[in-house]
Amino acid sequence: MDKFRKCFLSFFCDRLNTEMEAAAFSVDDFGFTFLEEGFSARDVVEQKINESSMSDDKDAFFVADLGDVLKKHLRWVRAMPRVTPFYAVKCNNSRAVVMTLASLGAGFDCASKTEIEMVRSLGVDPSRIIYANPCKQLSQIKYAAAQKVQMMTFDSEVELMKVARCHNDAKLVLRIATDDSKAVCRLSVKFGATLKASRLLLEQAKDLGLDVIGVSFHVGSGCTDSSTYVQAISDARCVFDMGAELGFNMTLLDIGGGFPGSEDVKLKFEEITGVINPALDKYFPADCGVRIIAEPGRYYVASAFMLAVNIIAKKVIMKEDPSSDDEDDGNYDRTLMYYVNDGVYGSFNCIQYDHAVVQPILHKKPKPDEHMFPCSIWGPTCDGLDRILEQCQLPDLQLGDWLLFDNMGAYTVAASSTFNGFERPDIHYVMSRSSWQVLQQIRTQGPPSLLEESCPSGMPACCGRESSLELPAKPCSARVL
Known about the structure:
Blueprint: H1 3-15, H2 27-30, E1 32-35, H3 41-51, E2 61-65, H4 66-79, E3 83-88, H5 95-103, E4 107-110, H6 113-121, E5 129-131, H7 138-146, E6 151-154, H8 157-166, E7 171-175, H9 195-208, E8 211-216, H10 227-245, E9 252-254, H11 269-283, E10 291-294, H12 298-301, E11 305-318, E12 334-340, H13 349-353, E13 361-362, E14 373-378, E15 387-394, E16 402-405, E17 426-432, H14 433-445
């Protein structure tokens, strides 16, 4: 049996009786609609648009494919069998998403009382939650203690003092700083202890009688340099050694997030895991007794959500002195401003706070000879900052036409507001029947076996043949529907 198969069986068998104890949820609990064979989430978008064609009520809406979340989970298990995902709830706190991941046996990275409440309300055992916020309010530490959530991060003496005061059974994880200078969203400017400070914090924890069980780090959201993980894992090894010198039994490594959730990125998921796995084998071998977790957020949800917005207003800006050669050069005598019914105070907050770059997809297929004009796209609020795109090329669209945006699941619905009285878009959840069957199999039997011959004799039916559900190498990226 090769190394990969051994790793997978270790991942599965060691956790079968703990992390796979997921609650049994029905289709009604999830609130999704089944996709019939041959249909996709984009067909549902088309259906919703058609249903609105006879009405003035053309509100923006999401279609979210929970089957895509499932595929991402299977992809994770294949790529990093030693690393247990603890989903970062802050990325997208949609109940159906959290419920799907709870059914898959994932853990959860919670940053507040409200997130812990939500995850616990789904029957998730507190051992599957890490309170991964290094700056916690006293009352919320007490709430975590009452809920028996023990794992929590820290990076300062003050945090240690608060935990010592409020949570006698805490299992502490020291968060260390990383070089996240090449990440889209940097986090070490706010969180993380240096290696020098780590020793002092461990000594302080020892003096307070606190139990430090491991180390965590985060290379930044939207990591663009996989070598950052290697250095962070190496630094974590140093801190583990410091802990051992002080008498701590450190058994947990949390490698954080930074994993891409779509394919339109420079650094692909498998490129990152191809660097992480050897680093883990080098610094934390499989037989060292250290459990490894991660905090993926956008990885699970980005590509699962598509947003449909409607053009509610339009302005034509004519050039004051167009030249006669403008049209021949492709520079027309006008620019177009489109106003749509969702914006940066709503689902497109990801532009401001997550540095997202969005591209519109035309719902109506343009004619082969249709002119494209320089355009800008604006949200519906009265704020001049509510601009979705400063410049793009679109045809001469009309009121009531639709624009679609894919890869809209990460840091969109979770951070949207109702500023100016504009409501958040409805979310329509879908899942194929084959995905639902695989989800039920995982809930009751554990992950499907990657290779049937990996199963040792006597292993129960939990290692059955994998479903026909396929993992896409790359999601559809067509820009016109």
